[in-house]
Design brief:
3 helices; elongated; single chain
Length: 101
């Protein structure tokens, strides 16, 4: 039985991986801070403000990865004359994200 190594596809966003991971660590810290605020019975509005900041930070990470997807995967698919399915998938994702807001 032969073992074939897993093929890892390099996505366009990976050029910014370090920055994205730094942002995610900050989001993780924000989430822990909010958890502590709730534990400490902090004022409601302060918690909501921090949740809004966390949500904004997560949205920014989403936008950066989305930009990489458009610049990489979508562009490549269009060049190869098979972009329609990728564009449909992208639009479903954008619609779902917009309903989330």
């Amino acid at each position: 039985m032969s073992t074939t190594p897993a093929v890892t596809k390099k996505y366009h966003y990976t050029k910014d991986k370090a920055s994205l991971l730094t942002r995610m660590k900050k989001i993780e810290g924000q989430a822990r801070g909010i958890e502590q605020m709730i534990t400490d019975d902090r004022y409601c509005i302060q918690i909501i403000q921090q949740l809004a900041a966390l949500s904004g930070a997560a949205d920014e990470v989403s936008l950066l990865i989305l930009q990489g997807h458009i610049e990489g995967c979508i562009t490549d698919a269009v060049r190869q004359q098979n972009g329609q399915d990728h564009i449909k998938e992208l639009m479903r994702t954008i619609r779902k994200a917009m309903r989330h807001q």
